[in-house]
Amino acid sequence: MFKLFMQGGAGYMTILTILLVALFFAAWKAPRWIKEIGTFALVFGFFTLMIGIRQMFVALQQVSDDLGESVTGLFDLISPGVFFGGLKIALIPVLYGVIIYMVSLVLRVIKKPRL
Q1: Which of 49, 75, 91, 100 sits CB 3.0–4.6 Å from 41 for a disulfide?
Q2: For residue 103, what pLDDT is reported?
Q3: In this model, does residue 107 exceed pLDDT 80?
């Protein structure tokens, strides 16, 4: 579990963990915030994906500029295993954000006022 935490980016995963703790605190003290915290975790997870993909493309552009005209395609530049491994790592915070959002949905159902 700690390995996934570190692979997903310690800063991003820490923020998502703080949101998870805040979600349980909100369920206890301020149930109206459950939806907002869960939605923010989901959006923040996708935001980290966009940052990760942008960083990946910047690095690929730098490598292709260094190699010059000899590169004809993306997979001439790197192996598919490295490319898809990077995407797999970039999806870790997104998955964590989706899990936090699902927890928020469950908490909203539990905390929903009964008739």
Answers
A1: 100
A2: 96
A3: yes
Residue 48 phi/psi, 5-degree rounding, is: -65, -35
Q: Are 20 and 41 in contact (CB under 8 A)?
A: yes
Between residues 27 and 79, the one the model is more confident about: 27
Report the distance separating Cα 6 and Cα 56, nearest Å.
18
Structure tokens at 104: 């928020």
- The 8-class DSSP code of residue 9 comes to -
- Cβ atoms of 109 and 95 closer than 8 Å: no
Total domains present in the chain: 1
Instruction: Compute CA distances 27 → 24, 42, 57, 92, whole Å.
Output: 5, 17, 40, 25
Domain range enclosing 19:
2-111
Evaluate whether 93 touches 16 at the Cβ level (below 8 Å). yes
Of 89, 111, 91, the residue nearest 38 (C-alpha): 111
Q: pLDDT tens, 24-69?
A: 999 999 888 999 999 999 999 999 999 988 988 887 777 777 766 6
